[in-house]
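R.M. (postdoc): so does anyone remember the format we settled on? I'll just put the structure tokens first.
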């Protein structure tokens, strides 16, 4: 039988999210039923709920930073058992057959990865996310949350954490490497913690010095204000890797100028307008610009284990479900330090 659960969904781009009930599918032989304890609010949720990227299918329940416990498992499930602490990230299925899937990069599935919400499954249904009491997910896409990290601060790791961990690992952040993080927000603050734990020399590049104390507490070795033009002269040619976490259009030529020989700037944010760069910004110092999109299931599990080992969790503000709309406005206004997390117990009747 399907299960009816309470949820919050968006019904139109200009409508506030509202409480509703949704149906979760029958538990299949390889499925895991999860009691959701916490769901992080990612800016992607807001873009989707408000159709700012286009392509939203309404109504939609956002949320792809999900942490909770296993309530039931199908007969053929071997990886998880009732009571396990688990999480679900940005996607819940992939073809499993293409080169990307076989390599553990399910996020780049050439058949098309099934996103946790606002996505069509291979069976033709549309997915609903974590702003709800329960979710059913095939066991291969359910992550184990180690005991070393609490569920509330673990929830944002399922998107924000892996979004930073994946490029930091791929481009070799570690001892002897100089890494800069652009922006100290929901993504950036976790990036600083992870880069520091990996052993890199970490610099935060933020508009102002208003969060400098926080940045240093998270592990930043240096902190510079980008509103000060002297920053770009002082740091010219300094970094092996720059991670851009902000979703506004920056003067990328300025930031490319901060890269050392063979340095790379990795774009994580999705700004409103196309990126613009001058060819000479790349030719000088043999620089590169790249992009990265979360990480596959193996990398996500590795990230969770790493964060538990190093005591890394998101800096959060817990809210009730009826505060979601206000939280959206605060995220857009950069009024959160550093991630909202919904206590889904507040969805109960």
């Amino acid at each position: 039988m399907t299960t009816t659960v309470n949820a919050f969904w968006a019904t139109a781009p200009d409508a506030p999210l509202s409480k509703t009930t949704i149906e979760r599918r029958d538990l299949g032989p390889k499925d895991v039923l999860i009691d959701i304890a916490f769901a992080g609010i990612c800016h992607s949720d807001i873009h989707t709920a408000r159709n700012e990227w286009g392509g939203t299918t309404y109504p939609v329940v956002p949320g792809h930073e999900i942490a909770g416990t296993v309530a039931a498992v199908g007969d053929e499930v071997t990886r998880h058992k009732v009571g396990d602490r688990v999480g679900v990230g940005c996607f819940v299925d992939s073809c499993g057959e293409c080169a990307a899937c076989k390599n553990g990069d399910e996020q780049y599935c050439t058949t098309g990865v099934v996103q946790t919400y606002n996505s069509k499954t291979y069976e033709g249904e549309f997915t609903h996310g974590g702003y709800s009491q329960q979710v059913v997910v095939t066991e291969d896409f359910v992550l184990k949350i180690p005991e070393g990290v609490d569920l509330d601060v673990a929830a944002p790791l399922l998107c924000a954490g892996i979004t930073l961990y994946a490029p930091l690992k791929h481009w070799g952040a570690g001892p002897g490497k100089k890494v800069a993080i652009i922006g100290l927000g929901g993504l950036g603050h976790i990036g600083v913690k992870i880069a520091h734990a990996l052993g890199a020399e970490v610099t935060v590049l933020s508009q102002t010095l208003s969060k400098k104390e926080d940045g240093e507490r998270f592990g930043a070795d240096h902190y510079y204000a980008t509103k000060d033009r002297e920053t770009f002269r002082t740091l010219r040619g300094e970094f092996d890797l720059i991670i851009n976490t902000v979703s506004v259009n920056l003067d990328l030529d300025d930031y490319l100028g901060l890269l050392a020989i063979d340095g790379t700037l990795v774009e994580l944010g999705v700004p409103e307008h196309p990126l613009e760069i001058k060819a000479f910004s790349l030719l000088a110092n043999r620089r590169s610009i790249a992009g990265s999109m979360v990480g596959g299931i193996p990398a996500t599990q590795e990230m969770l284990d790493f964060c538990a080992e190093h005591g890394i969790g998101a800096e959060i503000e817990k809210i009730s479900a009826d505060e979601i709309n206000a939280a959206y406005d605060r995220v857009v206004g950069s009024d959160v330090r550093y991630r909202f997390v919904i206590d889904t117990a507040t969805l109960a009747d």
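R.M.: ...and that's the designed sequence above, right after the tokens. Also worth knowing: Residues 297-310 form the longest helix (14 residues). The radius of gyration is 20 Å.
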